Amino acid sequence: MTTPRVVVLDLEPIDGNPFPEHEAGAHIDVLLSPLGSGTPLVRQYSLCGEPGNRKRYRIAVLREERSRGGSVAMHRFEVGDHVRISAPRNIFRLVPARRHLLFAGGIGITPLVAMAQQLDATGGDYTLHYCARSAADVALTEWFSDHPRIVLHLDDQPAEQKLDLRRDLGDPAEDTAVYVCGPGPFMDHVLDGARALGWPPSALHKERFTPTAAAAEAAPGGEDGDGFIVRLASSGAEYHVPPEESVLDVLLRNGVDAPSSCQQGICGECVVRVLAGEPDHRDDVLTDGERAAGLFTTCSSRALSPRLELDL
Prior knowledge:
With about 300 residues, the protein is an alpha/beta fold. It has 8 helices and 17 strands. It has a 5-stranded parallel beta sheet, sandwiched between helices. A 5-stranded mixed beta sheet has the order 12-11-17-13-15. The chain has a 3-stranded antiparallel beta sheet with strand order 3-2-5. Helix 3 links the parallel strand 7 (about 125-130) and strand 8.
């Protein structure tokens, strides 16, 4: 179930009341207090247990020594410890499709194994391709050992057993949805390969655990002129957003009740609608269609126009 770098944690409600319902692809926020720091951390983890289980949530956490501290803190938990979590949120749902092709790299297996369980329960047609460095790095093995719909690809396997997108993804197929989750380079490999094979953007679904290099470079703090103005439609209040701060930073600093979570443009919790102005999208969560519909991430995106009016 676990590996030297992955811990699997089962969370149960303290008061015995059922947890909120959730579907495959959902994640929760975990509020942490790392040792040596008085500043709480909020981290997001995909639920990898059985969808719909209201007695227990299961998460799996990869320990990253060079991370921002969340994974190290998660690995310190012991049986009986208490932790605060949010209700599940889901921006990575299974869409209705004749067939689903799931591609997981490393810890990216967590939301996709829940999708596989949901598809098994509903009789869905799917294949899950799970890529890992070696057999020792494979997590959650007790669930999918010898599962006929799960194909394991290891870096130390013979070449013919490794992931081959021409063979394992192939040409675009009608009414087939492709899901990808894992480390950035793995996701880029699968998504770039899918596009090269002709798969349309509408068929590709992704969830990242960290922003892309391009998104990180575009984060607040770079050249942005004198900033811009955000206007709140509900009150008419206007705030200046300087180059070194995000829209979310400014809203929270001024006491605006603005939703947020990851603050990296990858979870979708802070999304609002732009009513006027031209956004400069710098997130890695919204689709082209959602952007065209006026959706906007306050934690990472900015403005190309002098002002933006937000539906807040």
